[in-house]
Structure formats: structure tokens, C-alpha cells
Write a structure and sequence with these properties.
By secondary structure, the chain is of the alpha/beta class. The chain is built from 13 helices and 7 strands. It has a 7-stranded mixed β-sheet with strand order 5-4-1-2-3-6-7, sandwiched between helices. The longest helix is centred in the C-terminal third of the chain and has 28 residues, at 249-276.
Length: 334
């Protein structure tokens, strides 16, 4: 049986950012293939041709395929491991040891993926004999011989720990050719957005539409609990040998409170405008709300929620048409 692992990073390990982030997404070859097929169906349903990237989500006209991808993947029992590095501490340690930033990255680029991959292969349910690793393409990875070193060290780990698997390949992959790498990008992008509290920049429409996407995804069904259960985050700060597990709950609760209060204010404003101007068209309402064209679907979502339809009703009805759900049999009928 084959197990696939995909690796990506966000923010370089340098002095321009407080943290750098690294993510690994793993699953059986069959599970990954099914998810890729499902995402292709979502793309076709929404007439979307370009790939998914969280940083490129700046206009909510694409909210339906983005929302449906996130909802589908989190409900497919995905397992993601994320690793956060405190760049300040790492650079201080490098300076103390007279190591250049380039040398520092070469060391961390080996150790961090190892930790992430070990976390996936140490699962009790892990029962695979072949592991293939695909890494988002970077010229720097080739320069540091990341692929060959990971290949050797992961096999050494398997042998030392008495594991049954063997890593058969570690290869680069362009993210625009890999839906699994785009999945990592989306979930890692959301985590970074929540941890860095970028949603509080409400004067910029781009963080606002990202916030709306995340909120609508989290509030759907049991997604918020699955998001916490299936994404494990670890932080390295250079102060202790062991990395620290980061709980998402505090970041999520702060975001949900902030966003729900923001939405209540906006919906109250929209409701008053609608009652006072029943003949106004959508454009007039949008302009009165001081929304850009990028926020049009957010406006529609508010209108649907005010009318009692549910903010995600339209997107979920199309999703359920594509992936029909089996109605559970009541317990008393069994």
C-alpha cells in the first residue's frame, strides 16, 4: 500500500517576518486520488479553471469553489501537520553560532520536514509499505539537496524505529500542477491568517473577504471541531528541546467572536437600509454599505441570512447536488 506526503511552506525563514510556517498533508494513494477527483468536480461545477491559493483569494466571486473545497476536504478525514518557527529566535541562534541565514535555512529545511513527516508516519493506524513524498518546487531546495537528504533520513528513521515502510521517492512538484499542494496552501494560509489576526484589518476589503470565507466554512456543520481535530500545529521557539503543541481553540474563539460581532453590525446596517429603501437595487445597497465589488457575495450572504435562508444555503445546495449525502436512518428505525 502506498502513502503520499505533500510538503509546502509559507514565509521564508528570514528577518522580514515574525514566523515562518511549514505544512505536510498525508494520505493513502487512494484517498488522495479521490480528493483530487472531487476537487476537479468542484472546479467543473463552478466553471473555475485556475488553481486554489489562499493569498490569491482577494475577490469573493470565487467563494463557492473555495468554500466547497475546504468543506469537502475537512470532511474527508484529512490529516495535516503544521510547524511554526520563531524567526527571531532562529536568527539569534544563527548569529550566536556565526551561521549565515542561508546555512540556517539549509539546516531547518532538513529538520522541519522530518518532524512533520515523522508525525504522519507515527500514527497508530499507519500501515503502509511504501511512502512517496512530493515537495512544492523551489530552486533553493535543490541547492540544499533537500530531496536526497530527506530520502535517506526518512528511511534511516523507518529502519531505526522498526517501521515497515520504505520511502521510495522524494520529488519536487509545481503547485499549479498539484491539487494536494494547493490543499496544504489553503489550510496553512487560513491558520496563518488566524494566528496573525489579519482579520482585524477591516479597512482593507481583501482581509474582509478572506474572513468571510473562513467564517462561513467554520460555521458549516461540524467543520470548526474537525478543523481543530485534524490539523495539528507545533511551534519551535528555540527555548526548549521539545517543540510545543499549539492549540487552535483560543485563536478560533477570538476570531469567531470578532467576526460574529462584525457581521451583526453589518447585517443590522443592511436591514435598516433595505427597510428604508425597498426599491434599491443591489448596486445601490452595496455602495451604501461602502462595499467594493470584491464583497458582492458577502452582501448576498448577509441578505440570505436576514431572509432566513442561511448564508451558505446556495453553495451547499450545489455541493450536495454534486456529492449527494445519504440520509441517516433514525436510531428507532434500526
Amino acid at each position: 500500500m502506498k502513502y503520499l506526503i505533500f510538503f509546502d511552506e509559507s514565509n521564508k525563514l528570514d528577518d522580514t517576518k515574525k514566523y515562518s510556517y511549514y505544512g505536510a498533508y498525508g494520505g493513502s494513494e487512494e484517498e488522495i486520488r479521490k480528493n483530487v477527483q472531487s476537487v476537479k468536480k468542484i472546479l467543473k461545477l463552478n466553471n473555475k479553471t485556475s488553481e486554489f491559493h489562499f493569498t490569491r483569494y482577494k475577490n469573493d466571486r470565487s467563494i463557492a469553489p473555495y468554500f466547497q473545497l475546504l468543506h469537502h476536504i475537512i470532511n474527508s478525514k484529512v490529516r495535516l501537520n503544521l510547524f511554526i518557527v520563531d524567526n527571531d529566535q532562529a536568527l539569534k541562534m544563527a548569529e550566536k553560532r556565526n551561521i549565515s541565514t542561508s546555512e540556517l535555512r539549509s539546516l531547518f529545511y532538513i529538520k522541519i520536514p522530518e518532524r512533520l513527516f515523522y508525525g504522519l508516519t507515527r500514527e497508530k493506524s499507519f500501515d503502509y509499505d511504501e511512502v512517496r513524498i512530493l515537495v512544492d518546487h523551489s530552486d533553493e531546495y535543490g541547492k540544499f539537496r533537500l530531496y536526497s537528504q530527506l530520502h535517506r533520513q526518512m528511511n534511516a528513521h523507518s529502519l531505526y524505529r522498526g517501521k515497515s515502510y520504505q520511502v521510495t521517492s522524494v520529488k519536487p512538484k509545481q503547485s499549479d500542477e498539484s491539487i494536494p499542494l494547493q490543499i496544504i496552501d489553503m489550510f496553512m494560509g487560513m491558520v496563518v491568517f488566524l494566528i496573525e489576526k489579519s482579520y482585524k484589518c477591516i479597512d482593507d476589503d481583501k482581509p474582509v473577504v478572506k474572513s468571510d470565507l473562513i467564517y462561513r466554512f467554520l460555521m458549516q456543520g461540524d467543520n470548526i471541531n474537525k478543523f481543530q481535530d485534524q490539523i495539528r500545529i507545533f511551534r519551535w521557539d528555540g527555548k526548549k528541546e521539545e517543540v510545543r503543541r499549539v492549540q487552535l481553540s483560543s485563536y478560533l474563539s477570538e476570531f469567531m467572536v470578532f467576526k460574529s460581532q462584525y457581521d451583526i453590525r453589518e447585517m443590522n446596517k443592511l436591514n435598516l437600509l433595505t427597510l428604508a429603501n425597498p426599491d434599491w437595487k443591489t448596486k445601490q445597497l452595496r455602495e451604501a454599505m461602502d462595499y467594493s465589488n470584491n464583497q458582492l457575495r458577502m452582501l448576498f450572504g448577509y441578505k440570505d441570512e436576514i431572509s432566513g435562508q442561511g448564508r451558505n444555503n446556495h453553495m451547499m445546495s450545489r455541493y450536495n447536488y454534486l456529492f449527494p449525502q445519504i440520509t441517516p436512518v433514525p436510531e428507532e428505525a434500526l
